[in-house]
Write a structure and sequence with these properties.
The protein is built from 17 helices and 12 strands. It is mostly helical. Strand 1 and strand 2 form a beta hairpin.
């Protein structure tokens, strides 16, 4: 038995591995784009989205009378297997292909058609009784099917992986903020000593950033609900029933439980992908939040002897191949590297989003790949940082106390009593003489010892003045 079968497309015959469900156009893409072969355009989220689109299209075509019920049933059954992950190995194409994603759309059409043919007892590659273009791709173009896949896959991954990861870290840090609400520590601005804060307030700032990032992502998620299906080739809807966009969106919404709708302006939906650009920007913002939190943690934990050393974090693994006993803040470093990758991905998506020439943006696959990679990286890194670092954060109370007591910026509490300039004289004398603020104040005769002790209260300085 031959290990190849001959498939045909508009350009002629193409040998295809006999055991594969893909067809001629998928094979041409494999042969013609040996570019970045480790960067598959389609992991599980995108393959699932393709299955959902093709299944919903078959149902919509049957409902609108443009596809016989028996054909629609075969396509729905085959597409459900794609949705369920049964045929993921049949989606081998890489990111760097045609910018419309045509080969990937045809990959889905061919796999589903050939599997439907198997279910009907037919011969794979015969295109009977199901044709990949005429039946599976009916009322669609790659130009509107691929954008729908982009929206569905991105939205589902945000909800499945990213939002739970944010919530998990948020819960950990919120609990830490409450637990350390009374730990008074030295504040810092411009990398210099500042007035006191509590460790709880510091961590609450991180919690607030996560709150904002989550809201931005949820807003970006909601902007993905409109789908391009129904626009077909250039946005006019040629070769599709007038109500196809509305009906197919209804079926996708029913299958996913998400409020997908038909995009009001199909020309914008095909030629621009502003909702994807917006989603990437929200991911970039979350990356910035992750960078801030991770950097703060590793600075506060720096040392252990010659750094700030005001918090401790878990010792996860040896940190040096030459320095015995060295432990590094590796979870912080991993999270910051993820943030850098997300920033790079967003730059690619933002530029790609500007490439909507006339009626079509032809950077679709790279946009989808980078957004999904950012979601996956952030989801994984936030969970790892939470489980292996954030949950183990503890204050080094003695180091914190020492730094607060030695701080010159406690002098700020004297401003209302002796004025800014006199307070500055005390701080500068203490710094230059290497003495305490109390000793400098006493030497200058600007504040009595009793008043100094009454007015300098680090804990009171962590909240507004009582009026």
């Amino acid at each position: 038995m031959s290990d190849k079968r001959i498939e045909k497309d508009a350009l002629g015959e193409v040998p295809v591995p006999a055991h594969r469900l893909w067809g001629a156009q998928t094979q041409r893409s494999i042969d013609n784009f040996p570019i970045g072969v480790a960067r598959f355009a389609f992991g599980r989220p995108s393959i699932r989205a393709f299955g959902l689109v093709k299944q919903a299209a078959a149902r919509a075509n049957a409902e609108l009378g443009t596809l016989p019920a028996d054909k629609a049933d075969l396509i729905v059954r085959a597409a459900q297997e794609v949705v369920d992950g049964k045929w993921d190995d049949e989606f081998p194409l890489v990111v760097f292909q045609t910018g419309s994603g045509t080969q990937s759309n045809m990959n889905a059409n061919e796999v589903i058609a050939n599997r439907a043919i198997q279910l009907a007892g037919g011969v794979v590659g015969s295109k009977k009784p199901i044709h990949p273009n005429d039946d599976v791709n009916r009322s669609q173009s790659s130009n509107d099917a691929f954008p729908a896949v982009m929206h569905i896959a991105t939205l589902e991954e945000i909800e499945r992986a990213l939002l739970p990861a944010i919530a998990q870290l948020h819960a950990t840090l919120a609990a830490k903020a409450k637990a350390f609400a009374d730990v008074v520590m030295l504040g810092r601005t411009h990398l210099q000593d500042a007035t006191p804060v509590t460790l709880g307030q510091v961590i609450a700032g991180w919690v607030g950033q996560l709150d904002d990032a989550r809201r931005f992502i949820e807003s970006a998620r909601d902007s993905l609900h409109p789908l391009a299906l129904g626009g077909t080739a250039v946005g006019t809807g040629i070769n599709a029933p007038a109500r196809f966009g509305e009906v197919v969106a209804k079926h996708i919404a029913q299958a996913t439980g998400k409020p997908f709708t038909s995009a009001a302006n199909k020309f914008a939906a095909l030629s621009a992908h502003d909702a994807i650009v917006n989603a990437s920007a929200a991911l970039r913002t979350l990356g910035g939040v992750a960078m801030k939190i991770a950097n703060d943690v590793r600075w506060y934990a720096s040392g252990p002897r010659a750094g700030i050393g005001e918090i401790t974090i878990p010792d996860n693994e040896p940190g040096s191949s030459i320095m015995p006993g060295k432990i590094n803040p590796t979870q912080c470093e991993a999270l910051t590297m993820v943030a850098v990758q997300v920033f790079g991905n967003d730059a690619a998506v933002a530029f790609a989003g500007t490439q909507g020439n006339f009626q079509l943006n032809v950077f679709k696959p790279v946009m989808l790949h980078n957004v999904l990679e950012s979601i996956e990286l952030l989801s994984d890194a936030l969970r790892s940082f939470d489980e292996r670092c954030a949950r183990g954060i503890e204050p080094n109370r003695e180091r914190i106390r020492q730094h607060v007591e030695e701080s010159l910026m406690l002098v700020t509490a004297l401003n209302p009593h002796i004025g800014y300039e006199n307070s500055a004289k005390i701080a500068l004398k203490a710094h230059r003489d290497g003495t305490s603020l109390r000793a400098a104040a006493h030497a200058l005769g600007l504040v009595s010892d009793a008043d100094f002790d009454r007015w300098i209260d680090p804990k009171a300085m962590t909240k507004p003045d009582a009026m």
